[in-house]
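Bug #77: duplicate submission created two jobs. Keeping one. Sequence:
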Amino acid sequence: MDFAYQILKDAIIAVPAIKYALGIAGIISVIAIIKSFKIDWRIAFFGTVIMLFLMVVLVIFARLTQQQDMSFRLPILVFIWFSLLLMMAVAIMLFTSVFFAKPLDLRAILNPNQKDNSDSKKNDKEKVNKSNLLTLKPNITNIHVQWKHNIHEINGINSHNCVFENDNIPQKVFSIELLEEPLILRKEKDKLTVNINRKNIEYAVYNNQGKRELCKKCFNKQEHIVNFAKDVDTKVHEYFLGKSDFNEIEIILKDLPLRWSSGGVFCVVDYDNREWTPFFFRDIEPCGWNIPLGGSENLQEVNNPWNALWREFMEEFLVLAETPKSDSKIKVRKPVFPKVNELTLSYKSALNLMNKHIDLRRNFDNLDLIISDDDLIDYDVVETNTILNISSDFSSSQSKNILVAINPFELGIEAVAIIKCKFDKNDYLLDGEIMEPKGGIRELVRMPVALISHDYLKKAFDKDSFKLEYQGLSQASVKRDDIPKDDIIIFGWDISNRLSIVENKKTGMRTEFERYRKWKDDFGLFFMNNNLNQFNQALGLFTPTSAKISSYFFAQKQA
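Kept job's structure:
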């Protein structure tokens, strides 16, 4: 060793640069010391970096004491202050990281068992989450999906591409997808999320006949599917009312395809110092008082249900400035909607639909309606606790401030906005919906319209007393107590028109005779009495969506 060292000294004398080899030898010796002391390599690495930094600082201090030239003093002072602030910041972050795990959790470095404890807590949390997950599926496994058998034979159902890409399908009224991927409901803090998965969709529905036939195909002679639908209906209804202990519900849809999308509006009206909601009396299954609802017409509305529900509302909900009279000009109050991020609907397109309805009123009812630009009615969105997340292979979107009704016996999912407005004393409501029966000739639907008070609705759909009891099964209705006379205002213009057509006092199309005659046979007695102001109570029959949304609205309002 001495001989080798002497050779190194002689070499340094001959070639001075070789002295740096001693530095390399020193570094190698440090590595050997680290290994012999069994010091953690991470500590050694960071310690070496810090040591080199401090050595540089010492060199600068030493140079500063000898430096006479003022030009070097300023850079040195800048570096010293930078180093001081950096060391203070590092010390603070090390302190908070060790004791408070911010910005990094360094407790695992000081305590090797800490990571294991964290993993254990994470696993415990996952177990709790799994225990709060309810998966709803038929109680028979490995069954063959029945509803797809010969589905192309149904008039009203076709492949997804055919329905959404072909606008010339005969009797096409809407374009609604049939979901098959699981539907996920989840509680996140004070919000409920409904997660719609639009992947792997094969079929779509395009008219009401298709909806009815699909329901028959799913439930006919399949008791396990009927029981499954009952279970879904009950569990989901309790979940939306806040009466469920589960944080998450997963609904398996292979044997129970749900239609997407459909939507509408629950309107809160300030009228005569009370709160009311307008309803239309639906005379096809499911029958009863119904909020403005309808299906999507294109992929834009499927991806963003706000477009569909606003369009449906503008189509069906006409507010006149006075009671309609034949051969008189009547103002239609022009709707003004708030600007919401989700809304991309063209108002021009929606107003065109209103004008088509107005033309039919002029031609068939001698009613001259004019959309007024100076008589506006403002609608405001009411905040809700529900969020819709919609995903597909190509896109994803989110819709806020809605409520959702899931109706398994109708195979439907309804996204409903809550809006509010104020009616003037003389305002009058008309149904604005148009239908196109076989032959393609447009007809007025003329559904009876009414305002029903929130005093009645709160009692009828109280979350603690309201239960899902249907009249019938598929496409059924919800029966509640009759509505007291003081809690309903029925607008009778279209009731008179329907009765006149049935009684041949007024010319009507053949399909109108058929539709209104059936309505008269089933419900006409009530409406005839109402038209003569002889009724004491109104029929408390509601569609499932109207009943559920009413219940969810008041449950949220009371929360």
